[in-house]
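Thread: quick sanity check before group meeting

JM: Hey all, I'm pulling together slides for Thursday and realized we never actually wrote out the predicted structure for the chain we discussed last week. Dropping the sequence here so it's in one place. If anyone has concerns about the input, flag it before I start.
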Amino acid sequence: MGSNDSKPSALKEGEFVGALDCGTTSTRFIIFDSVADIIAEYQAEFPQYYPHPGWHEHHPEELVSVVKECFEGAVKVLEERGWDRSSIKVIGITNQRETTVAWSRSTGKHLCNAIVWDDSRTKGVVTHYERLLEEQGLTLPDGNLKKGSAGISSLKEM
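JM (edit): ok, ran it. Output follows.
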């Protein structure tokens, strides 16, 4: 057989950085080269749940599923462009930060839906403690009492 055989060629090896960006309504996985050019990317949205006015939730297993989908989708594009998946040398992760979910230590399963950062169900509780901070203050570990904005600054330093 000649040199024009249709035998698949080996994938190229590179050195890329992966970035997983988990946002409020979607997740994306982007693969960058050494000068921050995008080599491959994949993005997928996930469902939003609003069980009551002011409440905003995500289903934790759907979040994990979308992350996996984004990894797989971006790696597929990377390989279609001739690069080996082992070219991804490191992955950085960014997320919503304030979205919260509780997981069972014994089962590894979620205990409830994730409460999204813009959920307002605890607004009344926050208002209550803001009033207490203003009126009664906060006693710090060193015994000092701080009220109002001084108390808020002390909380930020803790």
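AS: nice. The first strand starts at residue 16 and ends at 22. The mean pLDDT is 89.
JM: adding both to the slides.
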